[in-house]
Prior knowledge:
By secondary structure, the chain is of the alpha/beta class. About 45% of the residues lie in helices and about 10% in strands. A 5-stranded parallel sheet has the order 2-3-4-1-5, with helices on both faces.
Amino acid sequence: MTQQMALPLRVNDGARFDNFYLGPNTAVVKAFEQMFMGTVNLPLNPVLLFGHTGTGKSHLLYAIVNHLSQFDQTSQPGLRSSYLALSDASISPDMLEVLEVDQIILLDDVHVWAGDIAREQALFGLYERVKQAQGMWVASSHASADESGFILPDLVSRLSSGLQFQLRALSEIERMEALKLRAEVRGFKLADEPVRYLVKHFSRDMHSLFQLLETMDAKTLQAGRKITVPFLKEILSQ
């Protein structure tokens, strides 16, 4: 399977290491930068990135894909990557069978397949093929390897054998700063008052807050107005 076939359209091509709000996760992001920003020589240790929903796991996986896509694959073939989100219902165990394994395989939300023995066996088989081909395995989950709900002991053992990094949730002030950073990336500034209103009245899940920010951006462009608390209330009541 080629990289283009494996990559779903929902990969965020704007996700980079330098637009990830660090907060309490500075050490994790810096570790990823060290692994992938310089010269990448496979094989590297397998990686499991875990944390609650909205802590930025997908962002970091997207950042890896986007960074590697900048390289000339003919001169640096070891920098190819394939990304699959296992939370996508269209992804089947058969698709794992045809992945090229001498590259960097990125699997988002592996915990979604936990408890299904056929899917777990497919994950185990892929892990073994990647290892044998001297590729690299990078996966994300909502919890550590032994707490993700997997029932296949060999799979838990393999996932536990590599590097495990935990992304921690942001505090209220950190969520405000993350929203401001995301707004700047999108080309506009957010004042403290509307940011504070969003953080206090809506989900602590940063993914949901970022989606809300996109809606706000589109609405303000249409209306030609600045983002204020009254305008936010108007938008959100629609």
